[in-house]
Description:
2 copies of one chain form a homodimer. With 152 residues, chain A is mainly α. Chain A has 2 domains: 21-113, Winged helix-like DNA-binding domain superfamily/Winged helix DNA-binding domain (Arc Repressor Mutant, subunit A), CATH 1.10.10; 115-152. Chain A has helices spanning 3-9, 16-38, 42-53, 59-66, 70-82, 104-113, 116-124, 128-151, and strands at 57-58, 86-91, 94-102. The first copy, chain A, has a 3-stranded antiparallel β-sheet. The interface between A and B is large, with 62 and 62 residues. Chain A binds a DNA duplex (30 and 30 nucleotides) through residues 25, 28-29, 32, 41-44, 58-60, 68-76, 79, 90, 94-98.
Amino acid sequence: MDNSSKDDLLQLEKFLCFSIYSAGHAFNRVYKPLLDNLGLTYPQYLVMVTLWQQDNQSVRSIGSKLYLESSTLTPLLKRLEANGLVSRKRDPEDERSVRVTLTEAGKALRDKAEEVPPCILDATGLDIETAKRLNRDLRTMRDQMEAVGQKI
Amino acid sequence: MDNSSKDDLLQLEKFLCFSIYSAGHAFNRVYKPLLDNLGLTYPQYLVMVTLWQQDNQSVRSIGSKLYLESSTLTPLLKRLEANGLVSRKRDPEDERSVRVTLTEAGKALRDKAEEVPPCILDATGLDIETAKRLNRDLRTMRDQMEAVGQKI
DNA sequence: GTAAATTAAATCGCACGCGATTAAATAACA
DNA sequence: TGTTATTTAATCGCGTGCGATTTAATTTAC
């Protein structure tokens, strides 16, 4: 392989993975001031969103929706509990599981959180249709990669 | 706003940010076994790619290309140095800067690294055209969000 | 020409994120 | 039934990632 082909292969701008990596950071930076008002970090916000959609879930269930391990979630959930947003209790039906439920404060936070998503779409500068297409393509790709990961 | 609209607004699957967040994790999982062979983490790999593209850069320069702060890069670069892949030296022209240069081992690693990108494209399950479009859209969006961040 | 402002790295504290391991509970099965 | 296998959280160690701050060097302003 000659040098120009080599250069072509290892150019950062051509890395789809880098575009995703850096876009993720960009999202974080835009989200941060908004989430600071809610007293949440971005991953904490995602956990709260899953609980607003469906309360009283196990750690496992939250993890499977967010693609996160218990080693990530356990300390995060403890912080949410310390902040009075959720409670964690062993499931009497199955003592291996921990049920995570919203407190009143956790439920109440939802109203303030409603205001966040529209701000974000603005910041992307995308029209709705492009955003939807991008979202669909990314989910398809993610699911494909998760499947490949399982096979190995 | 009625409840169905509320539910609509806070559904995880509709969050573009979440698709990017989870796609980033999926990439990481696919990359990990490949990068383990090179003895690199994913961010370390990105730093090496920028140095393979252009050797002898300042920390600042690397950071601006990868959108990373010195607080992230300094310890990372020290690890790369400890592993014998780069050297770090104050710039005699401007003692505030640190120049990062590839060692022979760092240069040599490039050959093995060449094999990584094609594996990854396979794993995404995307055809080249879709991958290119996705890449372009993401970069546009990222740049827009970075610009919005600057304004605030 | 010196004081003030700016710039570049480094440092520190905090919060992820995961692999590997552990402990406890439950399920499966001979 | 009793043993083994599996499942679920939790723990630990390591490596990001960043905001805030610090230190040192350089530039700007006056």
